[in-house]
Structures are given as structure tokens and as C-alpha cells.
TrEMBL record:
UniProt cross-references to InterPro entries, sorted A to Z: Lin1244/Lin1753-like_N
Stretch list, region Disordered: 259-311
Stretches with biased composition (Basic and acidic residues): 283-292
Name of the protein in its database record: DUF4373 domain-containing protein
Compositional bias (Low complexity): 259-272
Limits of the Lin1244/Lin1753-like N-terminal domain: 11-100
Pfam families in the cross-refs: Lin1244_N
């Protein structure tokens, strides 16, 4: 039997001249930021394959215990590391931590071992009947046609993955029910733009579910207003979904009413929105009444000009 390939290290380079990542972390979080980064690198160095999957509770709790920071701060730091490209942003969305720079700095170690560097885990798409994430196979992998306990486990995982895929698709379908047909078109247009904020031009279904779930905090009209602002301003198209959340949170009822009235996105509301005999939703009528009381529109429905909205 071949000797198992070692994909951990006992040390890693700690350069005396720090780069932008460490500087920004220290400026933002003080010693907590400094300590968190190097403890994270220690953890990556000591983990097989040099990636850390913290999608399960025990692994996440261990990371918090090792770095000795509160959960909220840990998430903030990891989000910042992803924005700085110190860790892989797409993998972090799946709660997997991987650092290209860290692994590349280990080249001398693996060169001495006459072994290839570990490769970045690959996230399986929702259409793949495989595990949720897969380390890239190496040349040492052997091929066998024998049915083994491992192959049965693999088959079980494939079936489980298909069940999960079905559940996610159903969840997305249910989350879309609160929107009208015209609103769905705007949502689809938004996602078609948003996907290009990812390196591979794809958004994982699990992330789409998170986005729809976050939108549940807002009324449908507010969601569509925020998406329209994003869609109609190309300068925002490099921003991720958090930017739209901010637009929705800061949107005033008068702004939402004006935006929805202008776009006509509220026509043909979804099943979850009641209508009066004229076809307008209760929410639209409420906003119209509020806008009239505020003097933003006249009694005839004409829209009064308002100042430019600052985002």
C-alpha cells in the first residue's frame, strides 16, 4: 500500500514586512485582527488539504475557540478577508476557508517533498450528483471496480445530494410565490447581473435561498424598488447582494411608491397580495395615501418632484 500523501505542514512563512491584509485587519480590529489571521493560518496549515470547512457547528465552534473572538466579530473578519481576497470569496460563501496565497507560500515545502501543492476544493453545482464540495483528485488516486464500503457511502451521498437539490429547488420556488409575474422578471434580471460578481459567473443555489430569505424582511414593493435602483445604475453592478439589502433598508415609503408606480412592477400581483376591484394592491393603496398626505403627489395622482436620493 502506498504511503498516504501528507497535506499538512509543521510551519509556514511569517514575513517581517506585513502586507495590506494584516495592515487593514490591525487598523480595523487591533490585536484581535492580527491574532485571528495568524491563528487561522496555523489552523489551515495543520488541516489536511489546507482548507477548513466550518459549515458544521463543531468546526465553527472550534475556530471561535482557537481565535478567541466572538462569533459576530469572527464573521466580520472573515467577510473582510474575503473582500480583500485573502481567502477565497466563493468558498467562504459555502463556509469553507481557503487561501491561495497561503498555499502558494508553501511551495518550497512541497517541492522538498517532491509533491504537488494541494489544490483548491471545487464546489459542486446544484446539477452535479456529487458531494457538496470536492477536493481535486491527484495522480495518486487509484481506480477499482470492486464494490467497497466506501463506494456504498459514496452512492449514499449522491442520493442524499439529489434529495438536497430537490429540496433547495422547491424552497426557491416557494420563496418566489410572494412576487407577481412582472416582479419575477425584475428579480431574474437582477440575478443575471449579480452572478457576474462571482468569478465563475454562477451563484450557488444555497446563496440564492439566503438572498430570498433576506428579502422576506421587506415588503415585495420595497424589494423590487431596491432591485430597480441596482439594475438601473450600472455603477452598482460590481456590488454584491449586501448593497441591495442596504438600499431596501434605507428606502422610504414615498420613494418606494414613486419607484413602483413608475416601473409598473406591481401589476398582476402574486397570490399572497390581495387586490381591490381596481387591481391595485393594499400595499400600493397605502403608499399612495401616504404619498398624498406627504404632498409628494396630487389628488389626481400626479407625482411631485423630489430631491435626488443619496445611496
Amino acid at each position: 500500500m502506498a504511503r498516504p500523501k501528507k497535506e499538512t505542514v509543521d510551519y509556514f512563512p511569517h514575513f517581517v514586512s506585513s502586507g495590506k491584509t494584516l495592515f487593514i485587519l490591525e487598523q480595523s480590529y487591533g490585536n484581535d485582527g492580527y491574532a485571528f489571521w495568524f491563528k487561522l493560518l496555523e489552523l489551515l496549515g495543520n488541516t489536511d488539504g489546507h482548507y477548513y470547512d466550518c459549515s458544521n457547528v463543531p468546526a465553527w465552534k472550534f475556530l471561535l475557540a482557537k481565535t478567541r473572538v466572538e462569533e459576530e466579530k469572527a464573521i466580520e473578519i472573515l467577510n473582510m478577508l474575503a473582500e480583500l481576497e485573502a481567502i477565497d470569496r466563493d468558498l467562504w460563501e459555502e463556509k469553507i476557508i481557503w487561501s491561495d496565497n497561503f498555499v502558494n507560500n508553501l511551495s518550497p515545502v512541497y517541492s522538498n517533498r517532491k509533491s504537488d501543492l494541494p489544490e483548491k476544493p471545487v464546489i459542486a453545482s446544484s446539477n452535479d450528483s456529487t458531494d457538496e464540495f470536492l477536493p481535486v483528485e491527484t495522480e495518486d488516486s487509484s481506480i477499482t471496480t470492486e464494490i467497497t464500503p466506501q463506494s456504498k457511502v459514496k452512492e449514499s451521498k449522491v442520493k442524499e445530494s439529489k434529495v438536497k437539490e430537490h429540496d433547495v429547488d422547491l424552497q426557491i420556488k416557494n420563496l418566489r410565490l410572494r412576487y407577481s409575474e412582472s416582479q419575477i422578471k425584475i428579480i431574474d434580471e437582477y440575478f443575471d447581473i449579480l452572478r457576474w460578481t462571482r468569478k465563475n459567473g454562477k451563484i450557488a443555489d444555497s446563496v440564492i435561498v439566503k438572498i430570498y430569505t433576506e428579502w422576506e424582511k421587506f415588503k415585495p414593493d420595497t424589494v423590487i424598488y431596491g432591485l430597480n435602483v441596482y439594475i438601473n445604475n450600472p455603477k452598482y453592478h460590481d456590488k454584491r447582494e449586501n448593497y441591495c439589502y442596504g438600499i431596501m433598508r434605507n428606502a422610504k415609503d414615498e420613494e418606494v411608491y414613486k419607484g413602483v408606480k413608475g416601473s409598473g412592477a406591481n401589476k398582476g400581483n402574486s397570490k399572497g397580495t390581495s387586490k381591490d376591484s381596481g387591481g391595485a394592491s393594499e400595499e400600493s393603496l397605502r403608499l399612495e395615501k401616504l404619498a398624498k398626505e406627504s404632498g409628494l403627489i396630487g389628488e389626481d395622482g400626479s407625482v411631485e418632484p423630489i430631491g435626488e436620493i443619496d445611496f
